[in-house]
Structures are given as C-alpha cells and as structure tokens.
Description:
It is built from 17 helices and no strands. By secondary structure, the chain is mostly helical. α3 packs antiparallel against α4, α6 runs antiparallel to α15 (349-377) and α13 runs antiparallel to α14 (315-341). The relative contact order is 0.17. Mean pLDDT is 82; it is low at 1-5.
Amino acid sequence: MFVKKTNAYSIYLLFRFSFSMLLSMATVLSVVYHLNVVRLNAFQLVLVGTVLETACFLLEIPTGVVADLYSRRRSVLIGIFLYGIGFVMEGALPWFATVLLAQIVWGCGDTFITGALEAWIASEETGKPMDEVFLRGGQLAQLGSVVGVVSGTLLGNINLQLPLILAGVLYLLLGLVFTRIMPETNFSPALEERQGLLKDFASLFKLNFSFVKGAPALLALLAITLCGGLASEGFDRLSTAHFLEDTVMPAIGLLNSVTWFGVMNLIGSTLGIFASQLLISHIEKRGTVSRTGLVMFTCAGYMICLALFALSRSFWFMLGVFLLAGLMRTMKEPVLTAWMNDHVDEKMRATVFSTSGQLDSFGQIIGGPIVGLVAQQASVSWGLVCTALLLLPALFLVPIAARARRQVD
C-alpha cells in the first residue's frame, strides 16, 4: 500500500506543506468569492461558517473513533478526498445552497483528518519532542500557505471560482499520492475485541469520557479550546467585511482589493514562519518552552489586537493589528496541542484530539451566530469586539491547567 522505509516525520511535514498550500489556495479569496460572486449578505456569510462548523461538530467524535478503532492513516486519506470533492463543488456551483452543501462535504473531510493526523504522527515519531514536531509542522504549513496564497491570489484575479476548483482537483491527486507513501507501523486499535461498529463506538466513547473526566488539566485545556472556537468565527468571517466596508484600501500599483487580501495572507504566513522558527530554536537550545506563559500571552494578545482592529478606521493600523491577531493564534495552537498530547493515552489520542476539534467547532457554532447578529443589528466593528470578549474566560483557564499539571506531576 505504501513505499517501504518512508520516514513518518518527513511524510508528516510534506503533508502539512501540501495540504496547507491547497487549503490557502482555495480559501484566500473565498470570502471575496462569497461576497462578490455568490452575493451573500453578512448573516449568510456567517451562516456558511456555522454550517461548516456544525458538520465538524456532529462528525468529529465518530470520525475520531474510526481512526482509533480501524486506522489513523485511512482516516486521513478519506479526509483528503472529501476536501477535494467539497472544494470542486463550492467553486463550480456558485449558489448559496450548494455552497452550504460543500461546507458539509469538506467539513466532514476535516473531521477525518483532525485528531487522526496528530495521533498518527505522535505514534509513528517517538524520537522528537512533540512541541518541536507540531511547531515544525506548523511552520511548513505556513510556508505552504504562502505558496497557496500567491497562487490563489493570481488565479482569483483571473476568475474567483478558479482557485476553489483547481485546489479541489489537486486535493484528489494528493490523496492518490499519499495512498502510496504514507506509512502506519505503530498503530494499535483502542479496543482489542470487536463487538460491531455501534457497540465499539459506544464502548470507546465511554472509555474516552471516563478518561477525560479524570484528567483536570486536560479538561481545562479542552475548555480553552472551546473559548478559542467562540472567539474565532467572527474574526475569520467578519474581518474581510470590516476592511471592505469600514476603511479605504489604498490602490498602490497593481494592489486592488482582491490582491490586498492575498498580500495580507502572505505577510501573515511569513510572520508565522519566523515566529515558529524562534520557538523551535528556543526548544532546541533549552529542550522546552513555557507553555503556560506562551498560551496566556497569545490569548491576551489576540484579544487586544482584535479589539483594536475592530475599533480602528485607519487602514495601515488595521492591517498591523490584524496581522498581529493572526500571529497570536498561529503561535498558540501547536503549543496547546503539544500540551494536550502530554495528558492523552496513546490508544485514545485520535478520539481525544477529535473531542478538542469538536469543542472548537461547537464554540464556532455558538459564537458565529452571536457575532453575526451583532454585526447585522449594530455593525461589523461591534461584532468583532464581541468576538474578542468571547476569549476572556481562557485567561482564567490557563492558570487552572498549569496548577492541575503540577498536582499530577
């Protein structure tokens, strides 16, 4: 099924680069596509994200169980193919109903990958610290995002549907490649004795629930993930509208509004690459990083930058704090994942990581309509301020997670 003696760490980095490249190609101008081609209003725009996150929420745990019971590798491959189908559908059929359906398809694909990929590399790669593995993977993902942003922006200036369709086709080809090269040598099913799919699902769900309930540090980290979900949907969906409606984007040379969004993504990805490298260099020198301090700093920084972004009308100031807000989120996620990995049993990794993904989706499902209604009834700016405030509980949860970890140690 795959080439022998492939290095799992190298395959993981290749996956993060190529997957992120295609995702950025498809999504860099997707909100512009939804606004200018599909003609969505502010509430419909947020509803698209809510449908996506609802699909992720409903399917996250079942797909995580599949990964822990049958194969994490197989789960990742299924996800790649579903991404391809979803993006082709979204780009080829520019109607509100089909865009919603496409969110369900590629959202389902995301649930097959989320949790399974992290659990796969944590099992296959045992010689490196997970902080370094996830940070390096994030760095390669940022590099892939740069390539995807450039290509997606160039294609979008030709036709806004083109990046979505091409990315979908390339996802299907990527799935065929990884079917050949992706190894899985250390997988051990979470349940040794099988009793049928439904009974296996129920048994593993109960086992996972009992494990999480008995791990206070993990509970706190999962709650932080929920807060992150609450505070992300508004930023992802309303920031483009804030730039288009509340400021004047300067025309410099070939920089029209479409190209500007590509440049923003390009700068954001470049900042993420350098920030990740600083953290990786710190880990290589000292062998660790202060997870408590870093997660606290990035949560507070995200809130402050997002509030400043929401209340500003100066394009250049908005651009600066917008990029910093994105950087805070980029730095937080791999460290939070590695922190969570320390508290997870090997056989239940995919299910626990899927639980984290489900809580993130649930947060976006709840937070999206709230900020969407605020944006519609008041203004986009106040919708973004509301988004920033939704992360506030995380500032109290980080010390709780740190104290719980010290008690366990």
